[in-house]
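Provenance

Sequences were taken from public entries as deposited. Structures were produced by running a predictor on each sequence independently, with no templates supplied. The record for PhnD/SsuA/transferrin family substrate-binding protein from Floridaenema aerugineum BLCC-F46 is shown for reference.
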Amino acid sequence: MKRRNFFWFSLLFLANCTAATSKGNNTKITSEKLRFSVTDTLTLEDLQRDYGALRTALEEILEKKVEFVPLGSYTAAAAALQLDQVDFVLTGPSEYVVMRARTNAVPVIALTRPNYYTVISVSANSGIKSVAELKGKKVAMWEVGSTSGHLGPTKMLMDAGLDPKSDVKILLLKGDGLPALRKGNVDAWGGSAVKYEKFLQDQGLSEKDLPLIAKGPLLPDDLFVANSKFDDNFIKDISSKLLANQDKLLTSLLSVEEGKYKGSRLISTVDSNYDMIREVYQAIGQGSFVQ
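Predicted structure for PhnD/SsuA/transferrin family substrate-binding protein:
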């Protein structure tokens, strides 16, 4: 998923949710309509363009009308769930742990991404051969809260024995990160393998020009989550129906940006699969977002 500035999230969430109250997991479904959104899609036009086929598939599989709910900002999903403005959300790992902490959102089923992992790249003439050698260096990343562009590479720094708050200088440059590395303005870049490969292709470069010093493991899956007001039987029913009809659902996602769901599968998931995200938030001093 596209990721968010979580410092702005804290202000947005407090402004919208201070009066909200949490609900128990005991509400049965009486409505024939499900309100649905995707956390990286801001407008109704975007939802219809990118996920119209998914909505049609969901309506056929679940035998319910599915209504798009544009969230208006990347950070509004948790507020919308807590205020009972949305029932069902397709989201990324970092957004999920925030939604879970604020609303007890229920993971329904995970959506794998076969190429969803992080890499760390350096300049060909840098002499840097390992992540541990980045101590004291400048490392470009995407933006705060990005699973593949911030949390993933930060975890790789941590695994190499580096403190992300003191041992390296992390610069959040979004799309300017790889150009900055190529110009020598930073010592390394950490981010999505897909973005790295696309940059090389677009610039006519090879891995020899910006060699990789590390490849991370697959990151936690994207997932469908449900409003915590729904009872356990409803969640199990949705999960089983999606699994039984996953070919139809996955076909509806093939046109989504950068082919990110090509080769994906639907699999069962549990909340503990996202503890890596929580660990990194703790390490960077933002644990309050996920507690």
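The first strand starts at residue 33 and ends at 38.
The domain at 117-218 is CATH 3.40.190.10 (D-Maltodextrin-Binding Protein; domain 2).
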